[in-house]
């Protein structure tokens, strides 16, 4: 499973100070992220060793430490980059919907589909992310809170635009609604992947669209799948 990277850098995230943005997108780092997310999803963070990550990635153990200061840093960066990528996917979907002349409700619906597509391609990453939301004693909690906020802020921005355009009520609780929509997609997608894998993404999207239209949009018809 491929988890593309979003550029960051600096000593605080385990990369060398002044490292170029492209340094975090190298094939070696990609393999390390892919190996780590798969192994940790299979057997847990504590049970996964650096040796196993290196072996799964097909690199020497020293290569892991060359790219990341520790296993903790690797995992923190994995979560950061994965959820950043999800946020970017949601934003692009919303922008594309409005650029085609759609409403903000259409943009929210496009974000639902983008989220489902992302999770279908990266189920292990989202599984880890959802699991980490319930843990408060991790060293990377601050990073997780930050990236969660970024993903949620993308949804909040579209909801706020919808209120300003008169498409949604001014009484809407934007932060809570954004959290509910994002959570709906994450949990429904994981349930789909785990317990209803025979369903197509179109079916799942149609069901969530009906919820969006009925509960947020206030309409009685779901957009075509």
Keywords:
mainly alpha; single chain; elongated; 68% helix
Number of helices: 9
- Which residues form runs of ≥5 with pLDDT under 50? 1-24, 219-225
Structural class: mainly alpha
End-to-end separation? 26 Å
% residues in beta strands: under 5%
Helix content: 55-70%
According to DSSP, the number of beta strands is 0
What Rg, in angstroms, do the CA atoms define? 19 Å
Q: Biggest sheet: strands, sense, closure?
A: none
SSE string? HHHHHHHHH
Characterize the quaternary organization of these chains: single chain
Shape: elongated
Mean pLDDT: 85
List the helices and strands and how they pair.
Layout: H1 27-43, H2 50-57, H3 61-67, H4 71-99, H5 104-121, H6 123-133, H7 141-164, H8 174-195, H9 201-217
Helix pairs in contact: 1-2, 1-6, 2-3, 4-5, 4-6, 4-7, 5-6, 5-7, 5-8, 5-9, 6-8, 7-8, 8-9
Would you give an account of this structure?
The chain has 225 residues and is mainly α. The protein has 9 helices and no strands. The longest helix is centred in the middle third of the chain and has 29 residues. The radius of gyration is 19 Å and the shape is elongated.
Short description:
This protein is mainly alpha-helical and 225 residues long. 68% of the residues lie in helices and 0% in strands.
């Amino acid at each position: 499973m491929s988890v593309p990277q979003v550029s960051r850098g600096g000593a605080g995230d385990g990369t060398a100070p002044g490292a170029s943005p492209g340094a975090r997108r190298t094939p070696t780092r990609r393999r390390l992220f892919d190996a780590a997310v798969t192994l940790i999803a299979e057997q847990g963070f504590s049970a996964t060793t650096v040796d196993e990550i290196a072996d799964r990635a097909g690199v020497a153990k020293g290569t892991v430490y060359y790219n990341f200061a520790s296993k903790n840093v690797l995992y923190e960066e994995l979560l950061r980059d994965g959820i950043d990528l999800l946020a970017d996917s949601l934003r692009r979907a919303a922008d594309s919907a409005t650029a085609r002349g759609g409403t903000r409700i259409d943009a929210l619906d496009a974000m639902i589909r983008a989220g489902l597509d992302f999770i279908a391609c990266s189920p292990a990453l989202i599984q880890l992310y959802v699991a980490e939301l319930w843990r408060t004693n991790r060293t990377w909690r601050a990073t997780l809170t930050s990236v969660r906020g970024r993903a949620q802020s993308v949804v909040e921005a579209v909801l706020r635009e919808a209120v300003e355009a008169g498409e949604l009520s001014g009484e809407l609780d934007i932060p809570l609604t954004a959290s509910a929509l994002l959570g709906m997609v994450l949990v429904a997608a994981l349930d789909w992947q785990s317990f209803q894998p025979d369903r197509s993404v179109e079916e799942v999207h149609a069901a969530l669209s009906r919820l969006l239209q009925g509960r947020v949009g206030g309409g009685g018809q779901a957009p075509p799948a």
